[in-house]
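quick one before i forget lol
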Amino acid sequence: MSKLNLKLLGPCLLAIAIDAMGFGLVYPIMAAIFSDPHSGIVGAAASPQLRNFYLGLGYGVYPFFMFFGSSLMGELSDGYGRRKIMLLCIFGLALSYLLMALGALLPSIALLLLGRGLSGLMAGCQGIAQAAITDVSTPETKAYNMSIMSMAFSAGVIVGPVLGGITSDRTILPIFNYGTPFLLVAALSVFCGLWTFWYYRDANLPKGKTRVDILLPLRIIYEAGRHQRVAFLSIVFFLMQVGYGLYLQTIMLVLQTRFGYTSSQLGLFSGLIGICFVFGLMVIVRLMLKVWNVVDIAKLGLLIAGIGQLLSALLPHEGMLWALGMVVGCFDMVAYTTMYTAYSDAVTVERQGWALGVAGSVMAIAWVVTGLLTNLLPVLGELGLLMVGGLSFILSFLMMVAYGRKWSSGAVGVGAGVYD
């Protein structure tokens, strides 16, 4: 297969884009819904503390269910086949976004949160789609297919927040409202599900059965704690994800409260960060790899992203926030990409899937924590919480410096399979 088989792999690429699109789309809309007294989702007379509580809950319920759902769906796809479980996830995503749309339109906070939780449970869709593409890739086409996957993910990251921001702003079109973006993603998910049903077929025969282990994510974390290198990296990655989670959640509130941003303006800001993600992934990381090793690149990414976030808290001027947002987005992706590579380098070939599963679980836990930290807004304010996120980035940088000193990046996989 010298070229991409669009009929076979197109549904998988669209599923990856939808997953990335839905993730980025939600944050500007959530910030707008819970801050807008006219949205009706929370009573107009509700206190800021109550609004912050529900906002944090809206942020945190997705990664909480993702923590269990991503590994569960991956395990099921190994046993029952990619196609069946991918269909389950895609149509599950369609239902979740329909529930969120109804929650925004009725309005009903219970439906909004139920849909948000269900979308987290179905978040294994992206991993299954990636595995499906890998299944049909040959050594000659694997690199090309992987690059196409990155492009699909990047497109979703950029388009999602922009689409969500614009189609939720009724000042652009009277028919737009907070439910419109969710309806659009639900419709796109249904289309993707039908495309998958008609054209995608499993490349490998499924096992036919598998043992469902609900506690698998907890077992993965426990195992990670017994492997010194992976445990150390997990602390670094946790601090990094808390830092960026606080940035993404809090910067929206800063722009909204200080400069009166509408949901469309918040979406454009998020879209710019998405573009910087792609630039960091496709350009900066590749250039740096010609000069430095993975650990040094990760350290630099963590440091620059942290400084950018701290300066955002110290210099909250509109133009400065946009400029610093590009810096944080670009170098967060630099750190994110190289952190995953560091996880891979820390273990043997046989443990690759396990190590990357640990990284996914750690990220989910970190985003649950950032959702809970939103409740500190009445105490610290938006800028204070932004500062906490920046300090978390800096602490992750210091931990990565210690990691680099203890384990040379040149010793790839040395002692990887040993709980040393």
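fyi The chain has a mean pLDDT of 87.
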